[in-house]
Protein: UDP-N-acetylglucosamine:LPS N-acetylglucosamine transferase
Amino acid sequence: MSKKIFVFFPDGVGLRNFAFTQFKELGVQKGHQIVYWNNTVFSLQEELGYDEVTIENHKINRLTPIYSRIRKHIELNVSQKKFKDDVYLTYKFPFNYNGIKNTLITLYTRLLIGFNSSEKGIVRIRKRICSLERSTEKYQYCRAQLQEHQPDLVFCTTQRATQSISALLAAKDLGIPTVAFVYSWDNVPKAMQVVETDYYFVWSDLMKDEVLKYYPFVQESQVIVTGTPQFEPHYDSHLLQERAVFFAEHNLDIDKKYICYSGDDETTSPLDQYYLQDLAQAVRSLNSKGKNLGIIYRKCPVDTTNRYDAVLQANTDIIAVIDPVWKPMGKQWNEILPTKKDLGLLYNVCAHSEFVTNVCSSTVFDFVAHEKSCIYFNYEQPQLRKGIRDIGQNYKYVHFRSMPSPAAAVFCTDKKELEHLVNQILKGELSNVSEGKKWYEIVAGVTPTQASEKIWKSIDAILSN
Structure:
């Protein structure tokens, strides 16, 4: 029997996984009516011809962001005490004391954190957030939409957006089953589970164990391993362009071998441009010794800074810029949204590059899917000063403990080693692909091509119950 499924986009991060892949097509094949419940500025009706119900009211309770930050800090404090591990404290962002208003908010925030830094305190704060969001006009607005359209299930494409809280509360209060997809490989230890739903879909057994570890109020039966559609496009050979076509389209030199430099956001890697500069110097040196190499620079899609400009301008003979095909739909970083075309572009950047270099990015898995290696930069830059974040902190995070061995990526721990590592990979003498595949399986699950299918099977099982 056909069921109406609301696929809920509280923000644009889920578009790539659930609008641009085979996800919708598989649901339709199963006989479901799929309606996108859309809280974003991206029109699925206009751009893709999909049925959608648009949420026009975006106003959450003005206290919800404050209480969400309180919740996050408390959860990290509890994890630090419970697991005797100071890494959780490094996930916190500094408080803002600029101006009287920010100072008062910070003092209020710290007071509530102090009074509630326990598992019981987490429950109290979560209940308070729910109470705040139930009091909003947005809650009533979403409830009315649900009553009008009568979906059989609401599938939320990310667990980390405060914009989703009131909508999911409305669904739960109406007795509609709710599911949240845990969006990213690092989200659970970072205390980024904002919503409470009836079920949680996760990438792997590792992520399931993490949800149960950090959220004792969640029962094992509520957490279902499905995989993630994020990597499915890498197995779609229809996306592959011939080398000559791809090179001509992006003005690349057909005689060169290209190394991909995958840029990072400014928070993760504030001195990222200097690692690109180091790679350019290594490539220039290798070229002087007979190699014919270039660099494809693919920036972080939400990076709007000009910090790379000087490096790019100084190395136009070596670095080719191929920007991600994302669209700015507003002024905020989370309003820069992916496009379907970018799935094919990323596929071909992977396919036509020799390997990838970056700072701690999940592109290691994109390239492993193409049997390509990854160099992780892990050394300090001389420009590092007090107040600038050291990238070495990233590799101490919990999600990097999932590596089966240090060989799951090629770590460059000294700038002087970079040229040698690049040359070794090019000569086939060094690779992380074998161990990287093991890591990929641990993080993303054993069947990366079947995630969309598994999600629909899990939805069917929930509906049958």
About this structure: The two ends are 14 Å apart (CA to CA).
